[in-house]
Amino acid sequence: MKKKIYDMLLVGSGLSSIIFTKEYLKKNSSINIISPDFKKYTNSTSGSLSSYKALPPQFKKNFKKIDDYFHLNKFKFNKKNCNLLGSLEFGGLSNYWGLQMDRNINDDIKHLSKNTQKDIKNCFLEILKENLLLGNYETFNNNFKIDYFYENLITSIKKNDTHIFEKPIIALSSKINKINKINRNCIKLTPNDIFKNLNKKKVIFHNYYVDTITKKNDLILVKCKNLQQEKVFFTKKIVLASGTLVTTKLLIDYFKIKKTIPIKHHPRLISVYFARNKLLSNLDMTPGLFQIKKNTNNKNYVGDLRPSNEIILNMALKIFSFLKPLKFIFLLFKDKILFSNNLLGSKYSNLYMKKNKDKFSIFSKNKKTLLVLKQKQKNIYKFLKEKKLIFSLYKNFFPGIGADYHYFGTVPIKRGGKLSLNEKCQVNQNKSIYVIDGSAFDFKKNLYPLGTIIANSKRVAKLIK
Asked: What would the pLDDT profile of 203-239 be if each residue is shown by its tens digit?
């Protein structure tokens, strides 16, 4: 029987994969995507992307899916030290947290050629316009208003202050009736929403884990598994959009790398504050409505503020189940409860990957990360208190090293060595392999890297098609 040879296979189902697919299908009739369906574990070889509806595992306290995922990929990790709760569910965690983006996407692409920088920025603008996103960036301006008290505070902040407020770009793919009015029942950038206007296009989903990729003459041989079932694909090109952890694992295997590979990330501490003034929002799920950054050239930490709502509170009560009897009190005061992600810069990264025999280990070394996070959080707390935004009350929640939203920087563009890419995002030592997830960038300044990643995936789709 003659083997089928694919022109291109896309691995992964996160936002970089989704944006790539949407762009690729503008000029092509079909696309083949390999990514496991955690909800089904079936022997079916194809399915529909529209079925991806799952909450992040952090808030379900359901580690089985993650255990199965790493078991099948031969990962080992220490839950007490490295939870590894990254974007493993379909569509990535960003789909659930409102897709907060930093407008300063040029901060970490300055080492690229002027043409590449221009292309990434143009693709970012296209994504904002195509998906009716909120915020502003260069010539794009679809601004929004938040509660008057906080809006006034942002516009009146002094330039010489030690901290600055900055409105992020908030990504929502719902129809906006008016510039300053947001539909409450908004839909995030989910696969179902993005593909709803592509009915004539064919998205073929293969329900497998990619176990290994190897070179086979002029082709790439892709070995896949799904429980007891195995399958081999042959392809001329493979595009890795499977997230930094999996992409790095596949390339370590491909190049037979024995050394330890550092994984860049933004260590994260979640804080809850009690506000003096209500922060009102008509969204069911919100990202941070503004960011608090250190007003220096070395912005190595940032905190965002997001209003509470019933969905977020229900998730929090799943984590802190002993507080469930007090749910009615939290709901009573929910408009005065503020959540914040406090993120450190990538210089505080503390994750490593290494292959030992036939298994991969992911581990951390420095145990002082939580102490640093608490120190930075106290600076933000002090600032909020000085501005009379909050009362002298807060609660921190540390999900653990490896429980971050952002992993990146293991296969960067324009660096030497086997784990490196050219500006077309092709692996330098095999131009048939492309990488379009966070692995391709080292985010030293930008603590909300999603915009850069998906803009680049759109750019690469244009190059490939």
From this structure: 888 888 899 999 999 999 999 988 778 999 999 999 9
How far is CA 140 from its chain centroid?
23
By C-alpha distance, which of 441, 447, 444, 396 is closest to 455? 441
Task: Say which residue the tokens 């603590």 belong to.
Answer: 447
**Packing angle of the helix pair 450-464, 15-24 (nearest 10 deg):** 30
In degrees to the nearest 10, what's the CA dihedral of 176, 180, 184, 187? Answer: 40
**CB-hemisphere CA count at 13 Å for 53?**
6
Nearest residue to 391 (alpha-carbon basis) of 283, 287, 290, 275: 275
What digits encode the pLDDT tens for the residues 187-212? 455 555 555 655 556 888 888 889 99
> What is the pLDDT at residue 171?
65
Strands lying side by side in the sheet with 301-307: 163-166, 290-294, 301-307, 337-344, 268-275, 390-397
- pLDDT tens string 411-431: 999 888 999 999 999 999 999
Torsion angle, CA of 101/105/108/111, rounded to 10 degrees? 160
Residue indicated by tokens 């992993």: 407
What letter does residue 413 receive in the DSSP assignment? B
**Which H or E element spans position 75?**
strand 75-77
Average pLDDT over residues 435-439: 96
pTM of this structure: 0.88
DSSP helix/strand/coil, 357: coil
What percent of the chain shows pLDDT beyond 90?
35
> Among all chains, which residue has been given the structure tokens 């080492």?
111
- Cα maximum dimension of the chain: 73
Q: Which of 87-91, 152-156, 283-287, 358-362 has the lowest mean pLDDT?
A: 87-91
Among 108, 154, 115, 156, residue whose Cα is nearest residue 135: 154
The three-state secondary structure class of 58 is helix
Which long-range contacts link 210-218 to residues 24+ away (Cβ below 8 Å)? 210/11, 210/34, 210/242, 210/246, 210/250, 211/72, 211/73, 212/250, 212/253, 212/254, 213/238, 213/250, 213/253, 213/254, 213/433, 214/254, 215/254, 215/430, 218/432
